[in-house]
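The records we work with from here on pair a chain with its fold. A complete example follows; check for yourself that the lines match position by position.
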Amino acid sequence: MSRPVIQVDQKVGLVKGLPLSFQHLFAMFGASILVPMLFGINPAIALFMNGLGTVIFILVGKFKAPAFLGSSFAFITPTTAVMAAIGAGGFAYACAGYVVVGAIFILVAALIKLVGIKWIDVVLPAATMGPVVALIGLDLAGTATGMAGLLPAAGAVMDPKAVTVAMVTLGVAVFGSLMFRKFFAAIPILVAIVVGYVFSIALGMVDLSKIAAAPLFALPNFALPKWRLDMILVILPATLVVISEHIGHIIVTGNIVGKDLTKDPGLHRTLFADGFSTSISGLAGSVPTTTYGENIGVMAITKVYSVYVIGGAGILSMILGFSGTLSAILMSIPVPVMGGVSILLFGVIAASGVRILVDQKVDYAKSKNLMLTAIVLIAGVSGIKIPVGQASLSGMTLATVVGMALSLVFWAVEKAKLTNDFDDEK
């Protein structure tokens, strides 16, 4: 018997909905708090703004687009450059850049509303989109294995405890997905994280004193941005990266839930929501937001697509922004636990890309399809980095840009009947 699907518009009762929402929250938690920690700001503000952004995304998407907005990694390099240039208080100047980036998202959303989305079929055919989606997962594979302790930093030695915890967590997630029944079949990721956490405590890897010392309530550190044109210009080039990322995530989410989200609720709505969330995050002194691969992976594994569940995760994230104790508990989850889960989540995303190629019956006897997939894959896994200001195009984002450009060229060549598909001898 196949696992039951909780559809996008399906409401779930509180008893089942709460653990399902926590599952989504846990999946993104480790990565999402890492970004503010790298910038030296309290993760509580990011948790609150991520949750608020998610709720806004659900509302703007007319309860049709299931996505959790977490902290974007695309801005780490340019933000670090701004902070290095300004010194103390430099993050506030980066926040102004986030506000402008969000405004650009909104302008692009308006343009797409005006011209429509037929261009997506031209620049992102299945032979391009399949490998791009696969690269979303493959691009993050090194991150997952690094978190799991399987790829220690240069000069470091592999930690047996970390690897053991990661493998136990991964094992529970994998076999739970295969063997759990009834409601537990919908929460294998949550169960895996809980088991990994308890196992970590048993191995002495969790400092429980920080939880005991945390205040019950804590106000997030809201702060206004500071404006300098030259610093804003350092941040802006990353816009291309996150727009490419957004389009890829929305299309793969649509493929997983079985709905074309670019048409309904529409790419213009999802882009607007993502941009608006990033702008208000910048205005509040938080990090920019983006759709998250971890939550795409959770949906693919569990078949829980409900926007009400993901909206609940957003509300829980907002609550965590004000709860010192709950935040401390989640922050005490060892990285290897999240690494073990992420190996599975990112692998499932990669498999979803292959599924697109199979479902769309991509014909590799046609040179166009073979060339598109080949070039996109190599662009994504080659390690090439093309500087875009202080940011860079690499991995999935580079593959997306290359694939879109090449698809457009091939379309034009085909329209001109210059391909060998139009050989007179046929």
Q: What stands out?
A: The beta strands are 69-71, 289-291, 385-388, 391-394. DSSP finds 19 helices and four strands in the chain.
